[in-house]
Amino acid sequence: MMRVLTLNTHKGFTAFNRRFVLHDLREAVRRVGADVVFLQEVQGEHAARAARVRGWPATPHYEYLADELWPEYAYGRNAVYPDGDHGNAVLSKFPIESYRNHDVSVGTQEARGLLHCVLRVPGCTQPLHAICVHLGLREAHRHGQLELLRSVIETEVAADAALIVAGDFNDWRNRAHRVLTRCEGLHDVFAAARGRTARSFPARFPLLRLDRIYVRNAARALPLMLPAHPWSRLSDHVPLAAEVAL
Questions:
Q1: How far is Cα 192 from Cα 223, in angstroms, rounded to an integer?
Q2: Which CATH number characterizes residue 85's domain?
Q3: What is the pTM (predicted TM-score) of this model?
């Protein structure tokens, strides 16, 4: 049984950028004991913040979060600006054989991506495909991005391969869920166990079901309950976690 975690890191800040909490975030992520971590809005570089924010790490945030627990990591740069960049990242205790970042941005206002990693899990004859997702705020944008996600799954993931798709879908109207469940065998871990997708936003009092963990060709997948503390003060989203048997 392996453990997976997905979290929008909000670039290491609390909601409304009030406090920089990347150090506390790293400790909280470590305590979950996840084998594979899906991260969104992860800061790569930011020269201005590095100069003025106390405690800003010398390495990109995904490297700092990986530390010594996750020897393998991949980063997909989604947004690039004068001071730096941010995007999606996957941290893994298993070897990452390959990865590819798919740009699914619509227009220039929201930079979005799908980071597709192929992992080699000991004891498994086939690789595990892990796709870290961050979709747009506008429903029209999400519709096109979901079709691109379905295309990636159909063209890059074998029908009998194990697959985990996780991240921030910004799907407050639950329409992405209806689209993705039409992909044969793909299902949301929380919806399968409890009848509904999980609430994850805002962190202080989660009401909206924005974040998801989908699996396909898993022998078993169960949602994992995480305590409200300290997560409610570490980002604007709370994380989701699951235990998956391949």
A1: 9
A2: 3.60.10.10
A3: 0.96
